[in-house]
Structures are given as C-alpha cells and as structure tokens.
C-alpha cells in the first residue's frame, strides 16, 4: 500500500502539542566527501557522518504527530539554534541524535566500520529466491563460500531457511542440519561467518561451530531464547526489521512513513537487547528492504538511509537481487538484476552504510572501490 508523504513545514511549526521528543528523528542532508568534508568538519560547518570520511551540513527533522509525519529541513547551525529554544526533552533529543549521527562506530565482529564491509550471501536451502538448491549440498556450499572469500567477501552469511516472501517455515532441527557443517568448515578455514536464522537452537549450534555473528530477521524477537543465547555467547548481532511473517508479510503492508516507523522499531529492539545483556557495541541494524514492505516503502527507506545512523549502531543494507530491483524496467528475472543491485549498493555506500549484504561480491567490491576513489579526489 502507498504511504503518506511527509508534510513539509518549517521548524517553528513542526511540533504540535501532542508530539513527544521520542517521536523526532533526523536525516542527515548536504552530504560532503573527501577534503571538503574534512574542511567543513574542522570549521564546524558540518559533522562527520558516523565518524567516517563523509560529513553532513544540514538535516531533515521528522516528527510523528497526529495525521502523519511532518518534516522540516535546516542547516545545522539553524537546527541547533532552534533546538536551544525548545523544551528540555526536545533539546536533549536533538543533541543525542546529533551525537549518535556523528560518533565514530567501534569495531564490530573484528572489522573497522570506517570502510565498507562486504557480507557475501550463502543460501544452503532448496528454495531461496536467488539460488535455491544450488548449494544445498554441504561440499558445494563450502566451495561457494570459499569462492566468495576469494572474491573479496569479509563475512559469509550462511542461511538454512528461505525467508523470501511466501516462504514456508523450516524446523530448527532441519535448518541446523543444513548449515552446521558448512559453518564449521568455513570458520575453520578462517572465515568470519554469520548465521542467518531466527531460531535460538540454530544460533546455539552455529555459534558452537564457529560463527561469530547472528543475523536475525526478527531482531532477536522471534524466539524468546534468542537474546540470552546471543548474550551468553557474546555474539555480534544484526537486528533486522520485518513487518509480519515471511509467509504473509507482503499482504498489504502499511506504514505512515516507513523509515521513521522502522527506526522506532529498531530503537526499541536495541534497548530490549541491551536489557538482555547484548551490548550495543555488538549490534548492527538492518532496515529490512523487502521484508513486509511494498515498493514505495522500500524506496522511501532507501532515500532516507542516513536516518538510521541516528540509532548509534553500524548499518547493514541488503538490496541484492531483491524484488525491489526486479520491479524496475528491464530487470524482471533474478539473473538480470546485477545493475540495479549495484546501484542500490552504491547508494547505500553514499549514505554512509557500513555493511553491504550481496550475492555478487567481486562486482560490488569493484563498484565500491571506484566510488571510494572518486570521493578521495574531492
């Protein structure tokens, strides 16, 4: 279903009597790169984006209120001056968001997040949308995992249950049977392995086999034991947003404004995981492109990706070969989606996203390398 377009207004009219400070989000705008970014930060005209080499000089302030979401755009000095005149909760919220948006991210799962980290996808399933059945044999799966590493993948994301739209669930026992040997052999070969699962039993088995990351489409909410499992193992985690379940999630999903609602949800899940013993420094967030979202929702989230840096964690995005690409002109079949997938990855990189989950590792690395080289010339 379509969603409402943010109501454009000015800062002075943005907040009404029913808007709380918790309903405010900032999207960095006026992104700068290279020497220009460094100069602007040094002169306090901009802030670094997630502590990286990009910077932002303005922001879109979004406020959830009765009747939808209102938005106002301002350069940072004007935004700060406006915030100083607001109530203490609003002033504090803006200051915290600016800090979260600009602070350097800590190392995560052994990787510095000041450069793009490539997560290669390895589906050990008979029914994944992209390569269903191609790597169901453990030996072939391990061989493909090694090939992804050779192509430049930093992380191998191993999944034993398809979560494509309309997919039927798989028992944890069958899922673990599919992935355990693959995870163990890749981990023993020195790979950083992520287990893509929503089941605590599978998490336990994969972590015991050498995985260091749990990538959960339910943000550790789908199985009541999951937060404790991740905390006990001191695992690194990816918390993803999904509206509904894979079997039904594309049945008319609805949002007032997807980016803001997804950010609200992930903020809540980060807090819940911290209470359960998962340190925030071990958390990365994923807005879940294609999971319980229509085309308009996906493109709006992609347009506002920089907003998710306000959560204070690293950000992971997966666009690779998804239906959001397949719905475009000239890209209906999975095998025709490489150009659109690369465009999505380059856009995410331009928005400061630190981790890219992809099928086509070598092609993505080359595209990102080119983009980084161009930025270094600015």
How would you portray this structure in words?
By secondary structure, this protein is of the alpha/beta class. It has two domains: 7-102, no CATH class; 117-376, Alpha-Beta Barrel (TIM Barrel). It contains 13 helices and 13 strands. The strands form two sheets. An eight-stranded parallel barrel has the order 6-7-8-9-10-11-12-13, surrounded by six helices. Strands 1, 2, 3, 4 and 5 form a five-stranded mixed beta sheet that branches. α10 (295-303) links the parallel β11 and β12 (314-317). The longest helix is centred in the last third of the chain and has 18 residues, at 258-275. 51% of the residues are buried.
Give a quick rundown of the structure.
The chain is α/β, with parallel strands linked by helices and 378 residues long. The protein contains 13 helices and 13 strands.
Task: List the keywords.
378 residues, alpha/beta, TIM Barrel, 2 domains, 8-stranded parallel β-barrel, 5-stranded mixed beta sheet, 13 helices, 13 strands
What oligomeric state do these chains adopt? single chain
Shape: globular
| Helical fraction | 25-40%
As for the CATH topology of the largest domain, it is: TIM Barrel
CATH class of the largest domain: Alpha Beta
Any idea what the radius of gyration is? 20 Å
Q: Determine the structural class based on helices, strands and strand pairing.
A: alpha/beta
**CATH-derived architecture of the largest domain:** Alpha-Beta Barrel
Unreliable parts = none
The helix/strand series, from N terminus to C terminus, equals EHEHEEEHHEHEHEHEHEHEHEHHEH
- The termini sit apart by 40 Å
Q: How many separate helices?
A: 13
- Strand composition percent: 15-25%
Count of strand segments: 13
Q: What spatial order of strands do you see in the largest sheet?
A: 6-7-8-9-10-11-12-13
List the domain count as a whole number. Answer: 2
Query: CATH superfamily of the largest domain, please?
Result: Dihydropteroate synthase-like
Largest sheet, in brief, is: 8 strands, parallel, barrel
Mean pLDDT: 93
């Amino acid at each position: 279903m379509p969603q409402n377009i943010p109501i454009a207004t000015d800062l002075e009219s943005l907040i009404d009597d029913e808007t709380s400070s918790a309903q405010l989000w900032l999207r960095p705008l006026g992104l700068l790169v290279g020497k220009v970014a460094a100069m602007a930060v040094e002169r306090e005209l901009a802030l670094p984006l997630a502590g990286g080499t990009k910077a932002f000089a303005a922001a879109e302030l979004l406020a959830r209120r009765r009747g939808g979401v209102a938005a106002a755009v301002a350069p940072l000095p004007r935004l700060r001056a406006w915030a100083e005149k607001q109530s203490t909760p609003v002033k504090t919220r803006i200051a915290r968001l600016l800090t979260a948006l600009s602070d350097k991210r800590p190392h995560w799962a052994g990787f510095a997040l000041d450069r793009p980290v490539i997560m290669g996808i390895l589906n050990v399933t008979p029914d994944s949308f992209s390569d269903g059945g191609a790597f169901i044999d453990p030996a072939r799966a391990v061989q493909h995992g090694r090939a992804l590493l050779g192509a430049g993948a930093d992380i191998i994301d191993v999944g034993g249950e398809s979560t494509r739209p309309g997919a039927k669930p798989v028992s944890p026992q069958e899922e673990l049977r599919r992935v355990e040997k693959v995870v163990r052999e890749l981990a023993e070969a020195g790979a950083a392995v992520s287990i893509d699962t929503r089941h605590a039993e599978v998490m336990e088995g994969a972590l015991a086999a050498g995985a260091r990351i749990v990538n959960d489409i339910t943000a550790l909410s789908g199985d009541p034991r999951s937060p404790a499992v991740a905390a006990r193992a001191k695992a690194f985690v990816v918390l993803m947003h999904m509206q509904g379940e894979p079997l039904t999630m594309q049945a008319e999903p609805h949002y007032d404004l997807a980016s803001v609602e997804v950010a609200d949800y992930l903020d809540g899940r980060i807090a819940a995981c911290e209470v359960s013993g998962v340190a925030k420094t071990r958390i990365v967030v994923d807005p879940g492109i294609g999971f319980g979202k229509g085309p308009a929702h996906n493109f709006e989230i992609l347009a506002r990706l920089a907003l998710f840096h306000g959560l204070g964690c690293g950000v992971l995005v997966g666009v690779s070969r998804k239906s959001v690409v397949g719905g475009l002109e000239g890209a209906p079949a999975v095998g025709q989606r490489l150009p659109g997938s690369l465009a999505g990855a380059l856009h995410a990189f331009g928005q400061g996203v630190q981790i890219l989950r992809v099928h086509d590792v070598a092609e993505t690395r080359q595209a990102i390398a080119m983009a980084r080289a161009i930025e270094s010339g600015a």
